[in-house]
Amino acid sequence: MTIKRALFNYISVSRYSSTSSLLKTGDKLKQTRIFTCEDLVDFSKVSFDANPLHLDPEYARNAGYNDVLVPGMLVASLFPRIIATHFPGAVYASQTLRFRSPVYVKEEIIGEVEATSIRGLKNKYIAKFVTKCFNNTGVLVLDGEAMAVLPTLSPTQP
């Protein structure tokens, strides 16, 4: 199984929400993800983040949480994933983040990017996005703004 196919086995991708075939201001792109304990262990190995709030349920409960917390940076990784899914070859240039509410393992998270400005630059495009993540009850858990260099304004469908 290819890596791309393995990734799409557990990531739901919404269709590009536009009546046009080109990205325009106001268009939204979304993906849904449920983070697992295995995701947290893998992220810990790659990031060297061994915070017990992310790995030890008892520690997390003693700290006042319902369960282990998904690292905020892992949740935020939905944003470049959404953009790259629809615009292969995009270069992620910047991201601001505000962590609003805890995210728990096995909680469905909806990541959303909304284009707020787009400008041409030679044969590429600079796009700014408002970025948000919600849990399955609609609570905003993470937000910010991103900028990416897109090779095209024509989105591809996974």
TrEMBL record:
Offer a single GO CC term for the protein: mitochondrion
What Pfam families would the database entry show? MaoC_dehydratas
Q: Which GO terms describe its biological process?
A: fatty acid biosynthetic process
Q: Which residues cross the membrane?
A: none
- InterPro entries linked: HotDog_dom_sf, MaoC-like_dom, UPF0336/Enoyl-CoA_hydratase
Could you tell me which residue ranges the MaoC-like domain spans?
30-123
According to the UniProt entry, its GO molecular function terms are: (3R)-hydroxyacyl-[acyl-carrier-protein] dehydratase activity
The record, for SUPFAM superfamilies, names: Thioesterase/thiol ester dehydrase-isomerase
Xref: PANTHER family: HYDROXYACYL-THIOESTER DEHYDRATASE TYPE 2, MITOCHONDRIAL, HYDROXYACYL-THIOESTER DEHYDRATASE TYPE 2, MITOCHONDRIAL-RELATED
Q: What's the name of the protein?
A: MaoC-like domain-containing protein
Organism equals Ambrosia artemisiifolia (Common ragweed)
